[in-house]
Write a structure and sequence with these properties.
The chain has 2 domains: 63 residues, Arc Repressor Mutant, subunit A (Orthogonal Bundle); 32 residues. The protein is mainly α. One of its GO terms (molecular function) is DNA binding. Keywords: DNA-binding.
């Protein structure tokens, strides 16, 4: 299945991009090294060679998303700096959190404003 030339050219960044695309399209439940391998047209072991485990793949995916957060032009006051950085991190995470598949996120039977905020916060995106 895996062409040796394809496997030799495959890089961790390519694997992570494919994993992020799979996450956006199908959701966290459908994300696995096997699914990423199928997307790339390689064997699962080839994907695992680059990311080692599913947990590590999720860590690398989070790093890739957070690595896109701009760190320039932050306010100098510590409190405002923290708020602005939190806004930027939230914006980086929102495309995944608001995808159609995210409706399967856990919900409370009687959501309160506090519970609603907690579900929509960046901390609510955790590897399963």
């Amino acid at each position: 299945m895996t062409n040796k030339r394809t496997a030799d050219r495959l890089e961790p960044g390519t694997v992570i991009r494919a994993a992020l695309e799979r996450l956006d399209e199908k959701g966290l439940e459908a994300l696995s090294p096997r699914a990423v391998a199928a997307r790339l047209g390689v064997r699962m072991n080839t994907v695992l060679w680059h990311v080692k485990t599913k947990a590590r793949m999720l860590e690398l995916m989070a790093d890739a998303v957070l690595g896109e957060v701009p760190l320039d032009d932050l306010p100098s006051a510590p409190a405002e700096r923290a708020r602005e950085l939190a806004r930027r991190v939230r914006r980086a995470l929102l495309p995944t959190a608001t995808a159609p598949h995210s409706s399967s996120a856990p919900t409370s039977p009687n959501p309160t404003p506090r519970a609603s905020r907690r579900r929509s916060s960046p901390r609510s995106w955790r590897p399963g």
